């Protein structure tokens, strides 16, 4: 029987309401990445006309955005795992707002192209940072529910973006898209500066360790410290007649959790792709989620041609997809927590919600993927039927229902994968999520570019049948490998890590003994 060890102390000192507030703040920041990618789409014809460039040329601003959306988080995410979440968030906000202002004032096409790259660099890492925040304060036992909270705004971005962008472009002009994004981000940045606490366990442990650097402390903490310092000095003057030294400290060292700091590894996200279990999971999930990109990409051209919708009406078509993502993420999140508890009961293990359990000998892959498989089957069936629905030119209500089911299935499976990735990499959640983002963007960019030529060549029915067929062929081998091999790979990697740590500790002891003997002579 597997043994799952638990820590004696609670995993985090934050209350349920505090954790919910922190996760929702991180989720709101993560919302900007998909929102910025899709809010821009309805304005492409107007921008191309104003700058006098072709539609193919203006599409490059979308392609370059996706490229940077995949690359940037790999470095900033790894930085956040070592240097803290707050500094990484501040960097993202500053870059993003500067890029939005530049896009709003862009005088020509080359300037817009470069600024869209910068805009992507500022917004894309927020998704990886949000997953890192969840990993910092949420245990595996209740991670599914909180990941669903975090994922809902992220998954709504592609649906709400076209509606917002189409409305702004039609009534205020396309430049106002970027001004509104600047205002929204600036408001959120103020909330983060004033309130958002540092959560990185390498900086604050379970939250009880008071960070030393001002970049890791919310503004209200800093103000509180200043007032406390002044009050203490006044008391010192009254008692001693002179200013005395005073420092405001957090909890006593005995009440703090030991902090294990992690070195900054710039290529850590890339190195994670070399792990066989991560490679199988990320490449397969990217292949599945590419179907989501293809459905979204096909909507404007297909619905304009078949149903003769306006730009604003086409944007509204994304709303059923958004509703499906909300339902799918919530159902998946609660199911993940339920299935984790079920496996604990089957193995005769204690179910610990407040304490992080050692998953090295726990079948976490099975506990997660058992929830993902039904969502995967639903999503694949929707992809198969979607193309033939468009081919048959059915009533508009039929594709709307299919979009809801696509959101329910494909994003439900996406939530399962996101949760499993964090479970497999608890100390490098941001870097691991960045790896997931990288493979998704890489495969998604290729799929998005290929879907229209496929539709033109073989028709929408066979184009999406091919996509569904690829998913069906890849599923058995990938799922079998993850269920049968992944836990063994994790245990082997953990044993090697312990051996390296023991060898390093032995070397340090031998060196200390040698130095002591040299001093005695």
UniProtKB/TrEMBL annotation:
Q: Which GO terms describe its molecular function?
A: transmembrane transporter activity
Quote the subcellular location field of this record.
Membrane
Query: What name has this protein been given in UniProt?
Result: Major facilitator superfamily (MFS) profile domain-containing protein
Q: Where is the Major facilitator superfamily (MFS) profile domain?
A: 22-486
Organism whose genome encodes this protein: Cochliobolus sativus (strain ND90Pr / ATCC 201652)
Question: Which keywords does this chain's UniProt record carry?
Answer: Membrane, Transmembrane, Transmembrane helix, Transport
Which parts of the sequence are annotated with region: Disordered? 491-521
Entry's InterPro entries?
MFS (IPR011701), MFS_dom (IPR020846), MFS_trans_sf (IPR036259)
Transmembrane stretches in the record are 20-41, 53-76, 88-107, 176-195, 281-303, 315-333, 371-390, 396-417, 438-455, 461-483
């Amino acid at each position: 029987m597997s043994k799952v060890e638990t820590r004696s102390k609670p995993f985090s000192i934050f209350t349920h309401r505090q954790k919910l507030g922190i996760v929702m703040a991180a989720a709101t920041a993560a919302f900007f990445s998909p929102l910025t990618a899709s809010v821009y789409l309805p304005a492409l014809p107007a921008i191309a006309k104003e700058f006098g460039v072709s539609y193919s040329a203006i599409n490059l601003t979308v392609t370059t955005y996706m490229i940077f959306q995949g690359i940037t988080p790999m470095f900033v995410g790894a930085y956040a795992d070592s240097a803290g979440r707050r500094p990484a968030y501040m960097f993202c906000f500053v870059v993003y707002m500067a890029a939005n202002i530049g896009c709003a004032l862009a005088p020509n096409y080359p300037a817009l192209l470069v600024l869209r790259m910068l805009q992507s660099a500022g917004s894309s890492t927020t998704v990886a940072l949000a997953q890192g925040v969840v990993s910092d304060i949420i245990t595996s036992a209740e991670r599914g529910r909180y990941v669903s909270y975090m994922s809902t705004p992220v998954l709504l971005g592609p649906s709400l973006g076209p509606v917002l962008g189409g409305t702004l472009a039609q009534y205020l002009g396309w430049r106002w898209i970027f001004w509104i994004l600047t205002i929204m981000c600036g408001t959120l940045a103020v909330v983060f500066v004033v309130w958002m606490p540092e959560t990185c366990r390498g900086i604050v442990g379970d939250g009880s360790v008071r960070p030393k650097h001002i970049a890791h402390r919310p503004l209200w903490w800093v103000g509180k410290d200043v007032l406390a310092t002044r009050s203490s000095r006044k008391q010192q003057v009254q008692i001693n007649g002179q200013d005395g030294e005073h420092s405001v400290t957090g909890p006593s060292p005995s009440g703090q959790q030991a902090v294990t700091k992690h070195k900054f590894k710039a290529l850590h996200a890339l190195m994670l792709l070399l792990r066989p279990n991560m490679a199988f999971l990320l490449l397969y999930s990217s292949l599945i989620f590419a179907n989501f990109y293809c459905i979204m990409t096909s909507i404007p051209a297909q619905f304009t041609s078949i149903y003769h919708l306006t730009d604003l009406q086409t944007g509204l078509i994304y709303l059923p997809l958004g509703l499906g993502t909300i339902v799918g993420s919530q159902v998946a999140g609660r199911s993940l927590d339920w299935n984790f508890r079920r496996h604990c009961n089957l193995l005769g293990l204690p179910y610990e919600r407040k304490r992080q359990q050692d998953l090295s000998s726990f079948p976490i892959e099975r506990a997660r993927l058992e929830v993902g498989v039904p969502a995967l089957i639903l999503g694949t069936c929707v992809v198969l039927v979607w193309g033939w629905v468009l081919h048959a030119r059915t009533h508009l209500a039929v594709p709307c229902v299919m979009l809801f089911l696509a959101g329910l299935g494909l994003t439900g499976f996406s939530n399962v994968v996101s949760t499993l990735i964090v479970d497999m990499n608890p100390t490098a959640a941001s870097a691991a999520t960045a790896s997931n983002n990288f493979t998704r963007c890489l495969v998604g960019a290729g799929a998005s570019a290929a879907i229209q030529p496929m539709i033109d060549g073989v028709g929408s029915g066979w184009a999406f049948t091919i996509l569904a067929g690829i998913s069906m062929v890849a599923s058995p081998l990938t799922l079998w490998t993850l269920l049968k091999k992944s836990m063994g790979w994790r245990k082997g990697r953990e044993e090697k890590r312990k051996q390296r740590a023991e060898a390093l500790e032995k070397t340090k002891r031998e060196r200390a003994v040698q130095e002591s003997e040299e001093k005695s002579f």
